[in-house]
Write a structure and sequence with these properties.
The protein has about 280 residues and is mainly β. The chain has helices at about 240, 265-280; strands spanning about 40, 50-55, 60, 75-80, 85-90, 90-95, 100, 110, 120, 130-135, 140-145, 155-160, 165, 180, 190, 200-205, 210, 225-230, 250, 260. It has a single domain (about 40-245), classed as Leucine-rich repeat, LRR (right-handed beta-alpha superhelix), CATH 3.80.10. It contains two helices and 20 strands. A hairpin with a 4-residue loop joins strand 6 (about 90-95) and strand 7 (about 100). It is elongated and about 60 Å long. The two termini are about 35 Å apart.
């Protein structure tokens, strides 16, 4: 599937954001002076060779995606005397551990978010190429903008029945993600939240249709099937009819009685065509 280059960020950044060292691709280490209190948005983003960093004591503002896309960054440490932020296993949180601010892009394998977290911040896991699975606790209520954008190897993520908002571009370009279940707690899915999830084969909605942003599954697989329970409301609205999906049909019987399938007509048509071709050959 043709798609834009999504390695370099997908949205135009505001002009007033501080990208002081962004794309310094030869930068391997940095010492942030104790006098620094403000680290701007995207300040060190896409410094690919940076391996570690320590947030000094006096920093009270850590900008959105300050170290996002630093592919070899394995740890973001924090001075223990810092009153605003804390680090656990190299992952940056607010001091009370309620907001996950940034997971370094060098983290790999499975990652379990602590039960104390209620908000997954904007760009928290942006460009974490080596993560394959994310476990989100049922304490989380908000998944921020670009939170998991461009996690190319992410194959599994469970969204708990506590999440109300999935932000803009939240899972943009997660090209290995194959299936998702959206709990009935979700009321809003942001713009392009699942765009270019090219391997995504199914999305199951457990409740009524949430509010959805523009192009929320733009560039998704043509094999994508959307499931939702019979009796659920909102799926016949204009926003859903505009999707490039097939007519809604109802499945009956079995443990999935009452499940609605978008895309079932395609399957039936293919089956009929195959049967006709078989009869012709005979």
């Amino acid at each position: 599937m043709l798609r834009p280059d999504i390695r370099h960020h997908t949205r135009q950044r505001d002009q007033d954001r501080n990208e002081a060292f962004s794309y310094c691709e030869s930068l391997t280490s940095i010492i942030i002076p104790e006098s620094v209190s403000y680290i701007g948005d995207y300040a060190f983003s896409d410094c690919y060779r940076l391996t570690s960093v320590c947030i000094p004591q006096n920093v009270t503002y850590y900008g959105i995606g300050a170290f996002s896309g630093c592919l070899y960054l394995e740890s973001i440490e924090v001075d223990p005397d810092n009153t605003a932020y804390a680090s656990i296993d190299g992952v940056l949180y607010t001091k009370d551990l309620s907001v996950l601010m940034q997971c370094p892009a060098g983290k790999s394998g499975e990652f379990s978010i602590p039960d104390s977290v209620t908000i997954i911040g904007d760009y928290a896991f942006y460009g974490c190429d080596y993560l394959t699975s994310i476990i989100i606790p049922d304490s989380v209520t908000i998944i921020g903008d670009d939170a998991f954008s461009q996690c190319y190897k992410l194959t599994s993520v469970t969204i708990p029945n506590s999440v109300a908002v999935i932000g803009d571009y939240a899972f943009y370009g997660c090209t290995s993600l194959e299936e998702l279940t959206i709990p009935d707690s979700v009321t809003r899915i942001g713009d392009r939240a699942f765009s270019y999830c090219e391997s995504l084969k199914s999305i199951t909605f457990k409740g009524n249709a949430p509010s959805i942003g523009s192009q929320w599954i733009f560039g998704a697989s043509s094999d994508l099937t959307i499931y939702y329970n019979e009796g659920a409301t909102g799926f016949d609205g204009p926003a859903w009819k505009d999707l490039s999906l097939q007519v809604i049909s109802t499945l009956k019987g079995g443990s999935d009685d009452g499940l609605i399938v978008i895309g079932l007509v395609v399957f039936v048509a293919i089956a009929i065509l195959a049967a006709l071709l078989y009869m012709r050959k005979r």
